[in-house]
Amino acid sequence: TSSFRLWLVDRTGRVLAERRSDEGMLAAAKAGFPGVLQAHLAAVQAPDHLPVLVCGMAGAKTGWVEAGYVDTPAPLSAILRQAARVPGEARDIRI
Asked: Long-range contacts of range 17-23, CB-CB < 8 Å, 24 or more positions apart?
């Protein structure tokens, strides 16, 4: 709820860029989730077509979009299949 962390990764999982701030769920809810995310994506020059996977409290009932839990351990494909899509965004954003 208190931290924002972003990693830009390539297809092999190599980290290309990283951002951290105190704009966790509580701050992002006040400022607006889309704007906070977009500012960080722009700072790492993430292409507009790049999909985004959001984890953590943004998927809580009081977060950006409520997202259900995935039983773990789970392969990445299961997480992506069950992730909730954020409506109203041009970019594919899932939580």
From this structure: 17/44, 17/45, 18/44, 19/43, 19/44
Q: Look up the CATH number of the domain holding residue 75.
A: 3.30.420.300
Domain of 69 in residue numbering reads as 4-94
User: What value, to the nearest 5°, has the Cα angle with vertex 42 and ends 86 and 19?
Assistant: 90
CA distance 43 to 12: 22
Q: Is the pLDDT of residue 1 over 90?
A: no
How far apart, in whole angstroms, are the C-alpha atoms of residue 29 and residue 62? 9
- Tally the domains of the chain: 1
- Give the number of other CB atoms < 10 A from CB of residue 38: 16
What are 5-32's pLDDT values in tens digits?
A: 999 999 899 999 999 999 999 899 999 9
